[in-house]
Design goal:
This protein is α/β, with parallel strands linked by helices and about 210 residues long. The protein has helices spanning about 15-25, 30-40, 45-55, 60-75, 90-100, 115-120, 155-180, 195-205; strands at about 5-10, 30, 80-85, 105-110, 125, 130-135, 185-190. The chain has a five-stranded parallel β-sheet with strand order 2-3-1-4-7, sandwiched between helices. A hairpin with a 6-residue loop joins strand 5 (about 125) and strand 6 (about 130-135). Helix 2 packs across helix 3 (about 45-55). It is globular, with a radius of gyration of 16 Å. Bound molecules: adenosine monophosphate (AMP).
Amino acid sequence: MNHIVLIGIQGSGKGTQARKLVEKYGYVIFETGAELRKFSQGNHPQAGEVKMILESGNLVPLWLIKEILADFIKNLPANTKVIFDGIPRNAEQKQVFEEVVADFGVLYFQLDRHDAMARLLGRRIDPTTNETFGADFELDYNPKTGEKLVVRSDDTEQAILRRIEVFYDVTLPLVETWKQEERKVYDIDADLSVDEVFEEVEKVLHLG
Ligand code: AMP
């Protein structure tokens, strides 16, 4: 198994775990939401429209997902192991994704929707590295980079509720489909500390 797909409700710690895998094992991360936020701040004619979709919590159209995925794959050095965070997010994306990425396993981060909601409300990110900081983090900057932390513009209560609804409606069913297809899917209990979850991740991936 070469690549890893992370699936889980928003706030389940996918990004945090991905960053730990990058630091310790040299994976490259494809963070779909961060790529789309970058796109929405650029000068593409549809940037403004995409920004509005992100802020609503709905999914952006398939053409854009195809475009950012193709761009990423095109520039990927050979033999790179990738962590895909936030893609695929529905059945049509699964099909497009599997046309270009064949050899992957899935980590499914399980977290109750109320816990996810509590984690998302009050989180802040480093806008450059996308590192996430919980509501209990006391500084207003990232001690590693010095960057001022910001609240994501789509971390409003309304957008969070919509993202959670979209997750249950169209993303979660992918896990069942993969299991039926005998894809390697590992269930991870995401309601543990960051280090405990990472231990579980290392164990199922036979790392460390
Ligand atoms: P995330 O950072 O993964 O929470 O994603 C933030 C927002 O980006 C989502 O609410 C969607 O609007 C958009 N987004 C991220 N990944 C995808 C995707 N694979 N397909 C469509 N929209 C996406």
